[in-house]
Design brief:
This protein is mainly alpha-helical. The chain has a single domain (8-101), classed as lambda repressor-like DNA-binding domains (434 Repressor (Amino-terminal Domain), Orthogonal Bundle). The chain has helices spanning 26-39, 44-51, 55-62, 70-79, 91-95; strands at 8-11, 16-19. The protein has a two-stranded antiparallel ribbon. Strand 1 (8-11) and strand 2 (16-19) form a beta hairpin. It is elongated. The protein starts with 7 loop residues before the first strand and ends in a 7-residue tail after the last helix.
């Protein structure tokens, strides 16, 4: 169940969750990670071993800790096959810029 503090949108057809990454939504991200871990039949220890991170990082993220390192979060998401998409009003301009090609 989505927490009443959640500020974002969910596209249920494609299982896409759109939210600003802030402290309030860290809890929702943690619930998404926990759901995927359990659906994969993995314990926290098993996910930590697959992702190459500590089990405490899994616990912290699932409990909504907002100060996890980006590299740790990306390893966790990759291990669970969760894709991160960046979206902004300037994204089309960025993709056409020389910066996007470097």
């Amino acid at each position: 169940m989505i927490n009443s503090r959640f500020r974002g949108s969910i596209d249920k057809q494609y299982c896409v969750i759109t939210m600003k990454l802030d402290k309030r939504n860290a809890e929702i991200l943690g619930l998404v990670i926990q759901f995927h871990r359990k659906a994969a039949g993995l314990s926290r220890n098993e996910l930590a071993a697959i992702a190459g991170i500590g089990k405490t990082a899994i616990f912290d993220m699932e409990k909504g800790k907002a100060t996890i390192q980006l590299s740790t979060l990306l390893k966790m998401l990759d291990a669970l096959n969760i894709t991160v998409r960046l979206n902004s009003p300037l994204m089309a301009r960025f993709q056409g810029s020389k910066d996007a090609k470097s």
